[in-house]
Design brief:
The protein is an alpha+beta fold. The protein has helices at residues 30-37, 56-61, 81-84, 86-102, 106-110, 125-134, 159-171, 237-240, 244-247, 263-274, 276-298, 339-356, and strands at 5-10, 40-42, 51-54, 73-74, 118-121, 140-144, 154-156, 181-185, 192-193, 196-209, 212-224, 260-262, 309-317, 323-329.
Length: 361
């Protein structure tokens, strides 16, 4: 079976023998368990399926070359990258902000301030250099536009560090490290808990872009670094990157907690420290980030009745409780590394399939 997708059918829809279900180790996870709970099974047939849980490569290579039946649903929109590729997300947010300003919606445009100062590389290298020279004490972060799990990310404070990257990109295009990046001003004052940096993973389901139909999952989790936060060592990824894929390789990683904290517990902690009013306002602003980012891509997104999308939003809180949008994931990990993580994700997926109404009840 192709590694690009997994197809599922409801057991009682087709009188066939149960398929020989085979999963990669990294995929034998919550999606399978959530559908098994609903008495669905994996299909080996190219045509007989109701839900395609596809990887992004399938969308690029196959989606536009097949005809879907009215009952078939796919877990990505065709041009999902408009929101989920880092450079395109920033481009669409900047354009949306300018549109609001042009339409005289000044107050609304001022609310689109939840992403760091950003430049696309190498195209905007000259603009970045001008900004860099205004304040030589600022730390910046470089992120490859199409990678996830913290791959290829690095922090820098000296121009020659990124100048070397630019030379590699220009003269060695075959170099896998020399690919388009986005450079952003690093948020150097994150809110810390126990001296450690964390970010939030919150799930948002979109079933339609016209009209925009959005659901936010009530819970999620905070992802913590394994090392105490300091700006004295900007090269240590265990200090600055919260990605589980990075942190699970640290010597002091705790496999029992998975480096995660349930969102409900985080809220209770924040309320005890900052009070109910400030925390409520913080999470209202987070909800507004979801809506604003989706409205920013609404007009360019190719809407399709066969498509839905479960997004994984990564949000960072700074020490003033201001939320910052780091990125939006089109394929948030559905593997679980603790029993609590498994329950959260299986329950999440169960709700997703209920909302999408794959059984048409």
């Amino acid at each position: 079976m192709s590694e690009y997708f997994r197809k599922y059918i409801k057991r009682d829809l087709y009188p066939v023998q149960p398929a020989n279900v085979r999963f990669r180790t990294t995929f034998r996870n919550c999606i399978y368990d959530a559908l098994k709970r609903r008495t669905w099974r994996e299909s080996e047939n190219e045509n007989e399926w109701e839900v395609m849980w596809a990887e992004k490569e399938w969308i690029h290579e196959i989606f536009d070359h097949i005809h879907l039946q009215s009952t078939q649903r796919v877990n990505h929109f065709r041009n999902y990258a408009e929101l989920c590729r880092k450079d395109l997300m920033i481009k669409n947010l900047k354009r949306y902000k300018k549109t609001l300003e042009k339409d005289g919606k000044t107050e609304e445009s001022l609310e689109v301030d939840f992403f760091p100062l950003s430049y696309n590389m190498p195209g905007e290298y000259s603009l970045f250099v001008e900004e860099f020279k205004k304040n030589l004490t600022i730390v910046w972060i470089m992120k490859p536009i199409g990678k996830s799990q913290g791959k290829g990310i690095f922090l820098f404070s000296k121009l020659q560090q990124v100048a070397q990257w630019k030379n590699d990109f220009r003269w060695k295009p075959e170099n896998p490290q020399a690919e388009p990046y986005i450079v952003q001003r690093y948020i150097a004052n994150p809110l810390l808990i126990g001296g450690r940096k964390f970010d939030l993973r919150i799930y948002v389901l979109v079933t339609n872009y016209s009209p925009l139909t959005v659901y936010q999952y009530r819970t999620g989790f905070a992802r913590f670094t394994s090392s105490r936060y300091t700006m004295e060592d900007i090269s240590n990824t265990y200090i600055h990157l919260t990605n589980v894929a990075v942190q699970k390789t640290a010597e002091n990683y705790d496999p029992n907690s998975g480096g995660k904290w349930e969102l409900r517990l985080l809220k209770l902690y924040l309320m005890s420290k900052f009070g109910l009013e400030k925390v409520t306002k913080c999470f209202e602003r987070i909800q507004q980030i979801f809506l604003t980012s989706l409205m920013a891509v609404q007009k360019v997104m190719i809407n399709d009745k066969h498509c839905f999308e479960l997004y994984g939003y990564d949000i960072l809180l700074d020490e003033t409780l201001k939320p910052w949008l780091l990125e939006v994931n089109a394929a948030p990990s559905m593997t679980a590394n603790t029993p609590q993580d498994w329950k959260l994700k299986v329950d999440l997926l169960d709700d997703v399939f209920s909302i999408v109404d794959i059984e048409k009840v």
